[in-house]
Amino acid sequence: MLIVSRRDAESILIRPSEDIDPKMTLADLFKTGPIEITIFSSAGNRVKMGVQAPEQLSIWRKNTAAA
Known about the structure:
Blueprint: E1 2-7, E2 12-16, H1 26-29, E3 36-43, E4 46-52, E5 57-61
Antiparallel strand pairs: 1-4, 2-5, 3-4
């Protein structure tokens, strides 16, 4: 699980990992389970959340994701 804090208007990206087979279907991507987002706390304009996703998906803070 990735634990991340985000402020107003900040984002996360969830996309297929670079090393997966491009022929993989959505059913294949989610075979081991769904994406789960858990909110741990919020204060002012900040939210702390955890993101759990199948290993075939990668999760990035948008401001640090490779373009």
